[in-house]
Amino acid sequence: MDAVPALDEPLKKVLGPATAKVMAEHLGLHTVGDLLHHYPRRYEERGQLTHLADLPMDEHVTVVAQVADARLHTFASAKAPRGKGQRLEVTITDGSGRLQLVFFGAGVHKPHKELLPGTRAMFAGRVSVFNRRMQLAHPAYELLRGDAEETVETWAGALIPIYPATAKLESWKIGKALQTVLPSAQEAVDPLPDSLRAGRGLVDLPEALLKIHRPHTKADIEDARARLKWDEAFVLQVALARRRHADAQLPAVARRPGPDGLLAAFDDRLPFTLTEGQQKVSAEIFTDLATEHPMHRLLQGEVGSGKTMVALRAMLAVVDAGGQAAMLAPTEVLAQQHHRSVTEMMGELAEGGMLGGAETGTKVTLLTGSMATAARRQALLDLATAEAGIVIGTHALIEDKVKFHDLGLVVVDEQHRFGVEQRDALRGKGKQPPHLLVMTATPIPRTVAMTVFGDLETSVLDQLPAGRSPIASHVVPAADKPHFLARAWERVREEVANGHQAYVVCPRIGDEEDDPKKSGRKKPPEDEAEKRPPLAVLDIAEQLARGPLKGLRVEVLHGRMQPDDKDAVMRRFTAGDVDVLVATTVIEVGVNVPNATAMVIMDADRFGVSQLHQLRGRVGRGSAPGLCLLVTEMPEASAARQRLGAVAGTLDGFELSRIDLEQRREGDVLGQAQSGTRSSLRMLAVIDDEEIIAEAREEAARIVAADPDLTGLPALRTALDALLDEEREQYLEKG
Question: What would the DSSP string read from start to end of 667-706?
């Protein structure tokens, strides 16, 4: 029998349509192979109990515990007016704490018979608080009798696997489904070359799958994890190594700037000296541009480290050498902002061919989707005739009708917003593949760069230009200490009184379209009692203008405004005609107003760590110190408050990106309802497994250099095809 189809068997044929449907919709599992690669999050030991004291609020959890007592109460209610309503309260314990379970109405009969004191079981449900006590309402449960044939068979050994689960499918049901498909693990095709496996003392793939799902000892789990981590790291690194290898075979035009050309003229105009970091990174880029293979470089720099200056010098070098350069920005606001700052930095050099323009100059053109027809037609003509040496635009640059005379360099700003396909579409517009420079202001730990941007060489700018001011950040606990919030608005007034400006950032716009009550989107029942909706720009702007910021010039900016209106607001804010800008995260990247010194982020707990760091980078861009206030209603002990504390505690973006990654990797913490999107890293932890990733990268490069088409490694090719098919978006799309 062919080995691959056993794992390709659809789950509905093996498990039945109902279970298969839930697995597909909620866990993204479609085939036997998918299920075999759905690994346990952790393991419970029969003799040990989980820590009830550490349960996270508002999440689906699975616990193993013992019933301490069970009491049936009767009460009167609207549905049962004669005192016939029934409520079963069961207290379970694990030695570290106690937890109450409640069952109501007809749902009390089965647990009343089964959950007797002394009974051990697994319980799964959503943790909530009632009368200041944590509880699980109507949890699903599975008795652990220990002597029943089925339970012993299902939970072989002393270690009980606990799987990432959902409200619709508890961990033990996933465990039972796995017992059904586990024999197919014998048919798993092993992607690791024999020499690599033997050299590193790794078990083969069928054995690893068996040990991860049915371990008898902790050593079994370690063996399996070591092996499965290598699979993920290695297959991914081979995919990236092949992409690097293919790119390195492409021809490109070497672009070397002349001694007295545009770049030299620009450098002579600079009123300041480049930082050491900017000079070093520029040298790396110029070396790449001078070769006859396309540059593929990732430029990552702290917020405000001067990446735009480095990118502009690279573009000028290419124009100097007779080519054109295109900069791709993720939003119109950012494209317009880049266009403004580039033309300001270049001065008369940006007016090539125009009256009063410099002889060595070139034209800098803007191209966005919402431009008027005449302006758009002129921009397209400038590109086709080489009148414009530099173009800055949005996705509009990728459209078929955009033709370049000789595209030599593509600069992509904020890479995480673009996929490889978009990058390639723009690169395809050159007569030969153009050079590529990718920029991101989100600091990326080295291992993540190797994992996610593994097809690019990396340069890092971690030095801030002279004259940049420090940013003080503070958490404002609005619920615990309302007077802190009042003081925050006073601080904003003080900044404005000193001649400065401020941002107020909200997670939502607040118009009809994004109002969940009006959009017709129903929340899942477990979210019905969710916290209030996120604060909205339109509401907050109105409240501030009428209340604490009355008399100040308050305006709004958000993504659904007309492009001209957005640009007009940004121009007024930049010119100092607006005191306070209430905005969504459209200001997150690239917006540069040196006079803005204060930022208040409302519902700060609703943003990610890296996003908060990005937003904060909009202030302190001039000579006056910056202030960032993170407003939250979350209680002091919550994980969200700890996260905000971390942001307030350091300005080091690399440190914050590690924290962010560690937290988001655990975003599917045991049993939390999953959205159906899964990373293909099920076992590998990019931060903790740095060594494995680095070694896998070396092994992959060696194997691809010797056999680029992997003709001698058919099993690896199969695994690669599966990865690129399923996870192309996840990794090679870099989105």
Answer: GG-TTPPP-S---S-SS--TTTTHHHHHHHHHHHHHHHHH
From edge to edge, which strands make up the β-sheet containing 596-601?
471-477, 626-632, 596-601, 501-505, 580-583, 554-557
Neighbouring C-alpha atoms within 13 Å toward the C-beta of 501: 25
Instruction: Give the list of residues 6+ apart from residue 61 with CB closer than 8 angstroms, or none.
Output: 55, 124, 125, 126, 127, 136, 670, 671
DSSP state for residue 90 in the 8-state scheme: E
Task: Give, to the nearest 10 degrees, the angle between helix 276-289 and helix 307-320.
Answer: 30
Give whole-number Cα distances, 10 to 21, 177, 657, 718, 725, in Å. Answer: 11, 13, 38, 18, 17
| Residue 309 · residue 301 · CB < 8 Å | no
Give the whole-angstrom CA distance, residue 350 versus residue 392: 13
514 pLDDT higher than 90: no
Q: What are the structure tokens assigned to 552, written together? A: 């100040």
Nearest-10 crossing angle of helices 218-249, 714-727: 80
Q: Tell me which residue has tokens 């293979």.
A: 293
> Cβ atoms within 10 A of the Cβ of 147, count?
6
Strand partners, 557: 583
Q: Whole-angstrom distance between the N-terminal and C-terminal Cα of the chain? A: 39
Q: How far is the C-alpha of 313 from the C-alpha of 106, rounded, in Å?
A: 73
Rounded CA gap, 298 and 457, in Å? 6
pLDDT band at 206 (very low <50, low <70, confident <90, very high): very high
Is the pLDDT reported for residue 79 higher than 70? no
Cα atoms in the 13 Å half-sphere on the side-chain side of 230 = 25
> Which of the residue ranges 53-57, 86-90, 615-619 would you say has the lowest mean pLDDT?
53-57
Contacts of 531 (CB under 8 A, 6+ apart): none
Give the separation between CA 275 and CA 305, rounded to whole angstroms. 9
**Residue 631: which of 463, 435, 444, 484 has the closest Cα?**
484
pLDDT confidence bin for 188, thresholds 50/70/90: confident
Question: Using CA atoms, how far apart are residues 604 and 611, in angstroms rounded to an integer?
Answer: 10
Residues 597 and 620: beta-carbon distance below 8 Å: yes
> Token pair for residue 262?
């545009």
> Dmax of the chain from CA atoms?
96
- Sort 28 into a burial class: Cβ within 10 Å, 0-12 / 13-18 / 19+: middle
| DSSP, res 294 | -
Helix H or strand E segment including 334: helix 332-346
Collapsed DSSP state (helix, strand, coil) of residue 561: coil
Taking 90 as the threshold, does the pLDDT of residue 503 lie above it? Answer: yes
Q: C-alpha 277: how far from its chain's center?
A: 27
Model confidence, pTM: 0.66
